[in-house]
Amino acid sequence: MKKTLDTLQIGESGTIVKINGEGRVRRRLFDMGLTPGAEVYLRKKAPLGDPLEITLRGYELSLRKDEAVNVELEMAEGK
For the whole model, what pTM was predicted? Predict the structure, then answer.
């Protein structure tokens, strides 16, 4: 099942399959380590849902919802 990073619930994880967007936004996401094949785990959401805190490649990263919508994930089976 595919989802975007902004639609994950706390505790869910998935594998990045595609980064959408153009120019600066796309480049910024790649520079932060959000690349196809990377595992992502949603740790926390702020009270109003923005920003998100994810674990990626062994570190924590805060990401705004408008950036997270560009990250497509393949959900792990059974999650």
Answer: 0.84
67 within 8 A of 54, measured Cβ to Cβ: no
**44 residue type, one letter:** K
From the list 31, 7, 2, the residue with the least C-alpha distance to 17 is 2
Distance CA 72, CA 68 (A): 9
Contact assessment for residue 1 and residue 9, using Cβ atoms and an 8 Å cutoff:
no
pLDDT one-digit tens code per residue, 34-54 = 999 999 999 999 888 789 999
The single residue listed with the structure tokens 């994810």 is: 54
Q: Are 7 and 54 in contact (CB under 8 A)?
A: no
Task: Please provide residue 45's backbone torsions phi and psi, each rounded to the nearest 5 degrees.
Answer: -130, 145
